[in-house]
């Protein structure tokens, strides 16, 4: 059984992958390895998880302004999440995607959702995102 | 490339449209395309003029960042306002003394050359506010580097949004920024009241208090603007620097007010711009203790290296350090490193500080730091530091253990060859 959640595409695009959900913000600098796609922040609940190819759902990016540069590297290396979903507008992720569009013609879909909706997203479920910002979740 | 659609809510001037159309050259056109896309995402109604920029995109983290800089430079990019540069990926003239892989050094230097070719001032520092290009109160600027953003906004009262890497250089090239967020006076009002409770004047004079305070502030504030009330002493600039750097590591604080200390907070009412706080929180001695403990990953290991200088060590910090080092020598098993800028190194050298460091057995690195350059040998498994930012990022970025301690403890540890650490008496 699938259900659909609508968000605001900050950078429109299509993606499909398993949801990787956290309610803890993450700095990509020191938190995400752009060579492997692994989450490496020792204090983060997703430590050790692989973000590459997943639809990463998190409230916002924490801390360092180098987060955008790391995400750009990850996109170039093919180790970025398939899409990033945040609660509200997170400009850091969107920027990396806009620049990846300029440099490599390879923008990463970034979607903004309402915070209330975020908490209902099931960890590990399969989901697909369309260019209009509809996130279709397949339970189980 | 197809024409960039202009977001419906964004009003551009004729000059902005000319920039976007490429009439100011292809590099300005590319920078403007990115800026306009981002202004749309921010929901900005217009762009505004900036007078200065600080570029954090200089940090080399891989070839994408280098290719971005070289693309802009290759298109003939020139910055349109005075622009300082943040740390790079290598000490340009000293990297060979460390374990930096030559290919990394080569690419990091290519990135440095690209940014310098745009007419930027080669400061290569994360503490640009302690050099000659210190922004004025009320000045509109576009700064990258989280600690510098917090310092410029909070301590100097200049106005910058929290510019991410890659966008800061677009602002520098176009001299424009989205008119949003902390650029606008009405968005600079305090939102959370953070009250110090039972924190003595004695505790408030210690450096560790400011690092612990920054750590807590980052954790509590989320994306809101904290106002600290209850401070009874006047912190020095480097203590405020520690608050900024730690709060921007544990959280994403881009502006805080400190009543009676920071320039937009002469009174509590001014700090909140006459509005009621959205929420309140208390910081008590036991909170400071918890924060102090959270900044170390291990209780009592062998220390391989003491590292000072995140953000980059200031001339005032050198003046505090040298008397602690004078006439002493580090233990052979504990290395001692200070990271600073080439500008501050020059001044410290003229004052004779570097001679004292050398006699102690300390080393110096400029242009970069241990977090942004792969310079440390793998044998360094445990680092001691007095910098909250180093303490926060070392485990994740370097995979090393970390111990946080005061400057005096860092020096005593380096001399003794094992950890010497005196916890502040939080309850006195």
Could you please describe the fold and organization of this structure?
Chain A has helices at residues 67-76, 91-104, 115-118, and strands spanning 2-6, 8-11, 15-21, 55-58, 83-87, 110-113, 126-129, 134-138. Chain A is of the alpha/beta class. In chain A, 51% of the residues are buried. Chain B is of the alpha/beta class and 428 residues long. Chain B has three domains: 14-185, Aconitase, domain 3 (2-Layer Sandwich); 189-294, no CATH class; 305-416, Aconitase, domain 3 (2-Layer Sandwich). Chain B is built from 16 helices and 14 strands. In chain B, the strands form four sheets. Chain B has a five-stranded parallel sheet, with helices on both faces. The termini of chain B are far apart. Classes of the chains: A alpha/beta (140), B alpha/beta (428). Chain A binds chain B through residues 10-11, 25, 29-31, 34-35, 40-43, 60-70, 72-73, 75-77, 89, 91-92, 94-96, 98-100, 102-103, and chain B through 30, 33-34, 37-38, 41-43, 56-57, 59, 61-65, 67-68, 71, 144-146, 149, 162-168, 218, 223, 248-252, 297, 371, 393, 395-397.
């Amino acid at each position: 059984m699938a259900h659909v959640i609508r968000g605001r595409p900050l950078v429109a695009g299509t993606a499909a992958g398993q949801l990787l959900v956290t309610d803890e913000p993450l700095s990509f600098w020191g938190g995400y390895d752009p060579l492997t796609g692994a989450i490496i922040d020792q204090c983060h609940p997703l430590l050790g998880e692989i973000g590459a190819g997943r639809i990463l759902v998190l409230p916002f990016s924490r801390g360092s302004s180098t987060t955008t540069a790391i995400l750009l590297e990850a996109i170039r290396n093919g180790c970025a999440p398939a899409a990033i979903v945040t609660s509200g507008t997170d400009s850091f992720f969107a920027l990396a995607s806009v620049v990846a569009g300029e440099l490599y013609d390879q923008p990463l879909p970034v979607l903004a959702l309402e915070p209330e909706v975020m908490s209902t997203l099931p960890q590990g479920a399969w989901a697909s995102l369309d260019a209009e910002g509809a996130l279709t979740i397949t339970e189980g | 490339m197809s024409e960039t659609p202009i977001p419906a809510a964004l009003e551009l001037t004729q000059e902005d449209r000319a920039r976007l159309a490429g009439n100011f050259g292809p590099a300005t056109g590319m920078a403007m395309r990115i800026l306009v896309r981002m202004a749309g995402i921010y929901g900005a109604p217009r762009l505004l003029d900036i007078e200065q920029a600080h570029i954090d995109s200089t940090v080399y983290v891989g070839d994408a960042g280098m290719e971005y800089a070289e693309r802009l430079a290759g298109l003939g990019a020139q910055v349109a306002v005075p622009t300082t540069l943040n740390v790079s990926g290598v000490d340009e003239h000293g990297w060979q003394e460390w374990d930096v892989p030559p290919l990394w050094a080569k690419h990091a230097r290519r990135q440095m050359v690209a940014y310098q070719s745009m007419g930027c001032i080669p400061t290569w520092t994360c503490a640009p506010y302690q050099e000659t290009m210190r922004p004025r109160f009320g000045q509109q600027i576009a700064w990258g580097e989280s600690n510098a953003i917090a310092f410029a906004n909070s301590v100097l009262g200049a106005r910058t949004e929290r510019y991410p890497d890659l966008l800061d250089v677009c602002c520098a090239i176009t001299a424009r920024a989205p008119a949003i967020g902390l650029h606008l006076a009405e968005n600079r009002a305090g939102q959370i009241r953070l009250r110090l409770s039972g924190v003595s004047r004695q505790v408030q004079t210690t450096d560790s208090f400011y690092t612990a305070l920054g750590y807590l502030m980052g954790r509590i504030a989320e994306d809101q603007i904290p106002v600290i009330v209850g401070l009874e002493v006047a912190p020095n600039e480097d203590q405020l620097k520690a608050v900024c750097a730690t709060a921007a590591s544990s959280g994403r604080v881009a502006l805080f007010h400190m009543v009676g200390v920071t320039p937009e907070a002469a009174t509590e009412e001014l700090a909140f711009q006459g509005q009621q706080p959205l929420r309140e929180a208390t910081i008590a001695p036991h909170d400071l203790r918890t924060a102090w403990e959270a900044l170390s990953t291990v209780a009592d290991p062998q220390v391989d290296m003491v590292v000072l200088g995140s953000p980059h060590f200031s001339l005032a910090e050198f003046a505090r350090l040298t008397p602690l080092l004078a006439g002493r020598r580090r233990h052979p098993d504990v290395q001692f490193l200070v990271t600073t800028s080439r500008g501050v190194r020059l001044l410290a050298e003229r004052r004779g500080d570097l001679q004292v460091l050398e006699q102690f057995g300390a080393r110096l690195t400029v242009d970069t730091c241990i977090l942004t350059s792969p310079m440390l040998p793998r044998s360094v498994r445990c680092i001691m530091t007095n910098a909250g930012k180093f303490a926060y990022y070392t485990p994740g970025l370097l995979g090393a253990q970390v111990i946080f301690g005061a400057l005096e403890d860092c020096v005593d540890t380096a001399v003794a060859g094992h950890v010497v650490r005196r916890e502040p008496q939080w309850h006195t």
